[in-house]
Amino acid sequence: MIKKKLFILILFFSILSTLSASGSSLLSIGSTESKVTVKVFSSLTCPHCATFHIKIFEKLKKEYIDTKKVRFEHHAFPLDLAALNAEKLLRCVKNKEKSFQLLGEIYRDQDEWAVGSDIKKINKSIKEIGLKFKLKGDIIDKCLQDEKVADQILNERIEAQKNYKISSTPTVYINEKKYEGEHEFKSFKKALEKLF
Fold this sequence. Notes:
With 196 residues, this protein is an alpha+beta fold. The chain has nine helices and five strands, in the order αββαβααααααββα. The longest helix is centred in the N-terminal third of the chain and has 23 residues, at 2-24.
C-alpha cells in the first residue's frame, strides 16, 4: 500500500515538473490579464503559417497585444526536421519580444531557407538568419544540436495534437474556440471584437 502511494506521488510530481518545464518554454506575448488569448499552432516551414503571421500578427500586436487586450501564444507544431530546427533557433532567444521579432524574420525569409531536402543546407540558412539577428555562431550551433529542446518541442506537438486535434497548420484558437475565418486581418479583427 505504501509503495503504491509512493509510486503515485512520484508520478504526480514527474507530471507536474514536465508541465511546468513545457509551460516555461511557451513563446507568448501580451498581458496575462488580457481578456482574450490567441493560440496559433504552426510549423515554421508552412507557407500558410507565414502568411497568417505576416498579414495578421503584426497588426494584431499593434492594435491588441501592445494595448493589453490580447495575449498571443505561438505553439510549435513542426511538420518536418527543417521546421523543428528553425523552432530550436527561436528558443535560442530568451527575451520574448526579441523571439517574436526573430519569428517574423524566419517567416519573412521562409522562401530562402525552407527549400529542398538537404538538411545541412537548410541548417546553414537557418544559422544565417540567426547571425543576421546578431546571435553568436557558437550559440546557434549549440541550439541546433540541443536534443533536449528537440524533445521538448516534439512533446509539445504531441500534447497539442491530443488536446486540440490539429489536422493542418496554422490552427488558430481564440479563447479555446477554433477560428474558422479568413486568414486576413479584417475577418480576424471581427472575431476578436465580439469578445470585448
